[in-house]
Amino acid sequence: MDSKTQNSASETNTTLAQTAYDVLLSRILDGTFATGSQVSEGRIANDLGLSRTPLREAIGRLEGEGLMQRSGRSVTVRAISLRDYMEVLHMRRLLECDAAGIAAASISLDVVAVLHERVQAMQDSVSSAEHWALDDDLHDAIARSTGSSLLIKTVADLRRRTRMFGRDRIPGRFEGGRQEHLRILDALSARNRGAAIQAMAEHLENAKNAILAELQRFG
User: Fold this and answer.
1) Residue 15's closest CA among 69, 73, 58?
2) DSSP secondary structure string for all residues of 96-165
3) Is 39 helix (H, G, I), strand (E, B) or coil?
């Protein structure tokens, strides 16, 4: 096999691995693959029409991100415990409050205006997927305004773990979360660093308290 053919085969495998990664991640985040559930490599490979090689590469990547784990031939979606969740929120508070402070001086006001309009217009009847998409866009925009690729990636990874734990455990957070997002955006629009940090801290603290209240309610 000549170098050109080898390069082409490598690029194809990389593309297939990315496709497998995207599908697996989507199924984890939307709850198709519940936390703690076992995943069949063979079934997924058949569903996607892929060989095991790119699939295993994708699973290895998700293992590295802490979303899946392998034990022998068994692959499971990693369960996020309450302790994990609290650690994730603690890290998010450290990173995202700092990011909000930086964003107050650096984020595009056009981006803030668009996000503000989207949050303001969102209704309680929107789908969970639409809600999470807007939530992702807002937090990602703040992280990106820092210019730190490591912070952007870390915040995205931590938010995925938050979603895996809290997707179905936080009733009644729509309006509260919406108002909290609007306060964050208002602070960014005013270029008010202190208010942006405080609004982000309150948002993450309220998310934590909602989870704790729900767990206490059901024992």
Assistant:
1) 58
2) HHHHHHHHHHHS-HHHHHHHHHHHHH--TTS-HHHHHHHHHHHHHHHHHTTT-HHHHHHHHHHHHHHHHH
3) strand
- Strands in 74-77's sheet, in edge-to-edge order, are 38-39, 74-77, 68-71
pLDDT digits 0-9 by tens, 46-67: 888 888 888 999 999 999 888 9
What residue has token string 């309450």?
82
Inter-residue contact 101 to 178 (CB < 8 Å): no
Distance (Å, whole) CA 169 – CA 72: 31
Q: Residue holding tokens 């009733």?
A: 171
Which tens digits make up the pLDDT trace of 172-200? 678 899 999 999 999 999 999 999 999 99
Token code pair at residue 214: 């729900």
pTM score above 0.85: no
Q: Which amino acid is at 166?
A: G
Least confidently predicted of 2-16, 83-97, 168-182: 2-16
Short-list 86, 83, 85, CA closest to 161: 85
